[in-house]
Amino acid sequence: MTVIRIPTQLRELTGGAGEVDLQGATVAELLAALNAAHPGFGERISEPDGSLRRFVNIFVAEEDIRFLEGIDTPVAPGEVVSIVPAVAGG
């Protein structure tokens, strides 16, 4: 199982849960499992073509997947995956 950390802004989709446990070998598989378990999640973080929205960052073991293999980044059992919305301001 893999722990996925859910940001506060999206917890209404997980019934308030800040973490969910799911199975998947890649980030893409985990995101599909997350959307299957909590419908509507995918459309909040992904574009219609399946790519991540610009303002969504995903980390596997504290490494940004944009600098790894994107949504095809492998995830070992027990690793923590964090979904982090981008923060902007001045």
UniProtKB/TrEMBL annotation:
InterPro entries: Beta-grasp_dom_sf, Mopterin_synth/thiamin_S_b, Sulfur_Carrier/Prot_Modifier, ThiS/MoaD-like. Pfam families: ThiS. PANTHER family: SULFUR CARRIER PROTEIN CYSO, SULFUR CARRIER PROTEIN SLR0821-RELATED. This is Unannotated protein. It comes from freshwater metagenome.
